[in-house]
Amino acid sequence: MQPLSFLKRPPALILTILLIAQASVFYGFSRGSENIPLVRPLERFPAHIGEWRMVQNGVVEDEVKEVLRADDYLTRFYGNVQSNQLASLFVAYFRSQRAGQTPHSPKNCLPGSGWIWTVSDTVPVTVAGVVKPIEVNRYVVSKGEERAMVLYWYQSRDRVVASEYKAAAYSVADALRYNHTDTALVRIVVGFKNPQDEQAAYQTGVNFIQSFYSTLRGFFPA
Description:
The chain is of the alpha+beta class and 222 residues long. 31% of the residues lie in helices and 32% in strands. The chain is globular.
């Protein structure tokens, strides 16, 4: 492969153009202060959500924080009191993306940790209070005997975006229109052991999202 030849591929080219535009817009606004919205700290997110109860607080290690450079985090494990199913919730919130503080895609982070993906697509999830289903990424990964269903998306203002390309484009539009570029990465992980349990893990993840979505939305700026 010739140097930089991957930039000639359509997806990489589109993302490159968006990133250049994003940088140009951010630079153009850098002389003025960004209207950074105030939100409630994510640590105030409730421990009880419908049939789900927090069973453990997670820890974001210092080296991970140095890489992500998010302004607020939430990492917890929840259990369903009816079915005994378990799911983890991770949220990284960025008040501004101007200094290069942008969410890292799980599609890049998980393979770097030794996980191998078998499914990568997007799925619609119906949630209360939203007319149309939100679209989220579905990412099925495995490492040794471990398997996991990963559902994640990017959220800015009232939008849920699955595509990294669209998320970058919207950040430019938000900088121009609202003079702020806040965003969040929301990720749910449901572990499972056998391949035949994949669909059940997916349904668990969907149920968990439907339980907490409207509550989490209240922590983000309108």
